[in-house]
Design goal:
Elements (H helix, E strand, L loop, with lengths): L3 H9 L3 E5 L5 E5 L3 E5 L5 E7 L2 E13 L2 E7 L7 E7 L3 H27 L2 E7 L6 E8 L2 E8 L6 H16 L9 E5 L1 H11 L4 H6 E7 L6 E4 L5 H4 L17 H7 L6 E6 L2 E6 L2 E9 L2 E6 L6 E3 L4 H14 L10 H4 L2 H11 L8 E3 L15 E5 L4 E6 L7 H17 L2 H5 L13 E7 L7 H6 L7 E6 L9 E5 L1
Length: 485
């Protein structure tokens, strides 16, 4: 058992750590981004800062396990108990080998479930070559072969899994010898349910080829259960998520002080974790209330530090660097501040004037000031004829773009049909038309993935999607040079 002071010393012994959570998800943190502090009733608080804000947990126990640290924590009222592994970055080679073995073990575990559940013969089990995060399983029943795809990390999005599945199945279907035209995606309960909803947005042709299955651990041993193929109309029976948008979000005193350093280029986004300050879309400062006191961190990427009066000049210097390098006339286009978060840069330009994309659009004045961790929609607008428009932005080719936008469409369309959006009055009294939302996908001309059109054709014709090609010099001026639907 390690006491808090010893734990602080152990963490400070390494500059950078990898936090590995129970789910298998991991991310890197500097030692300075991990806080060990005193809470109420003599409890110790374990906190860390990531891209979504500051998170604090009650520290139950901490133990040394070789070069690693095992951290036992719990959320408020002892809910959401979890164990973290803190691994020094110097030990990553050993960790990588351990992770690969664990993924292969899980792939074979899933193959055994398939064999039991469907009374079939397993032909091959392997991990995908690209990143080793997906199990690729081939099974045989009679003379027919079917392939199975399963996430062995528990961290991949449904969009990543579905795009990989479609490309793999398309490749297998084109084989001259023994083509395979059926694919099953197996996932844990929540992942499978989300995949089932995304699957409902596919065209009939691709729905018929792909089946979603849930790994059921209610039985011993676990089994694989095929889920029903749903139609789009069935999705509207669900309960819509309420919007928790403050009517007049106000920046804190600390946030206002930061905004005053460059008010024309800095905006603020509110979330449950606090406020994020962005310079042309690039987060560079965060403000959060911790135990009733405003606390701020500044820095871009992993280089974050606690902000106080005695180092305020460091923030001022950072803003000066942002003004120098994160602008269209930057003297160094290779500078990290120039190249980072390009999609957010485009978003920040369009937030100020959405008419640069389409003169008929009106942006919600409230919606984009408040963002939850689950809300990834770039922009939500209203066309002058009342049609709702979801705007998805990319600066570089992204093969998941089509399915990300389609899933946003599903969520927004459900809220529209249930009256949630009208009740929130997002557009200052303007009425939202009783017609399906539109999707505008915008990117520089070379920013669309080569398979964009292929994936667009896999969607149901009920989803109306428009492609906007922007001029490559969008930082200087956002101009639409091509539009197609």
């Amino acid at each position: 058992m390690v006491n808090p002071d010893e734990l602080r010393s152990l963490i400070d012994a390494h500059r950078e750590w990898l936090i590995v959570r129970d789910s298998g998800r991991s991310f890197a943190l500097l030692a300075s981004e991990i806080e060990i502090g005193a809470g109420d009733r003599g409890r110790t608080i374990f906190g860390f800062l990531d891209e979504t804000g500051f998170h604090s947990w009650r520290l139950n126990a901490a133990e040394v396990a070789g070069a690693e640290l095992s951290i036992d924590v719990a959320g408020a009222f002892a809910r959401n108990q979890e164990k973290f592994r803190l691994v020094p970055r110097s030990s990553l080679a050993d960790l990588s080998a351990e992770i690969e073995l664990a993924r292969l073990h899980k792939a074979n575990e899933i193959a055994a479930m398939i064999e039991r559940s469907f009374a079939v013969k397993i032909v091959r089990v392997e991990l995908n070559v690209e990143n080793g995060r997906l199990a690729q399983i081939v099974f045989e029943k009679g003379k027919e072969q079917t392939v199975v795809l399963a996430d062995v990390t528990g961290s991949l999005t449904p969009e990543v899994i579905l795009t990989t599945a479609i490309l793999w199945l398309d490749k297998l279907g084109l084989r001259r010898k023994n083509p395979i035209n059926d694919l099953l995606i197996a996932g844990e309960s929540r992942q499978a349910k989300n995949l089932q909803k995304l699957h409902a947005l596919l065209s009939d042709r691709w729905k018929a080829k792909i089946t979603i299955a849930e790994i059921s651990r209610k039985t011993d041993p676990p089994t694989i259960i095929e889920l029903k193929k749903r139609r789009i109309g069935e999705l509207w029976r669900e309960k819509a998520k309420k919007l928790n948008i403050p009517r007049e979000p106000r920046p804190s005193d600390t946030a206002r002080r930061i905004i005053d350093l460059s008010p024309a280029k800095i905006d603020v986004v509110f979330s449950k974790q606090g406020e994020t300050l962005r310079f042309f879309g690039l987060p560079f400062a965060r403000v959060r209330s911790v135990l009733g006191e405003e606390r701020a961190w500044c820095g871009t990427g992993k280089q974050r530090r606690l902000l106080a009066d005695d180092n305020w000049n460091e923030l001022v210097e950072l803003v000066r660097d942002l003004e120098r390098y994160r602008n269209p006339a930057s003297e160094n286009h290779r500078h990290e501040l120039y190249r980072s978060s390009p999609e957010s840069w485009i978003e920040s330009i369009l937030r100020r004037d959405i008419r640069l994309l389409d003169a008929n659009l009106i942006l919600s004045p409230i919606y984009h000031q408040f963002r939850s961790s689950n809300d990834k929609i770039d922009l939500l607008a209203l066309r002058r004829d009342g049609r709702l428009v979801i705007v998805e932005l990319k600066a570089h080719p992204d093969r998941e773009m089509v399915f990300q936008a389609a899933d946003y469409w599903r969520k927004i369309e459900l809220q529209r049909r249930r009256g949630v959006l009208a009740e929130a009055n997002l557009f200052d009294g303007r009425e939202i038309a009783d017609k399906p939302a539109l999707i505008y996908l915008a990117a520089p001309a070379l920013g669309f993935h080569r398979d964009f059109e292929f994936f667009a054709r896999t969607l149901s014709p009920e989803i109306e999607l428009w492609r906007f090609e922007l001029h490559q010099e969008w930082r200087r001026s956002v101009k639409v040079i091509g539009r197609s639907g």
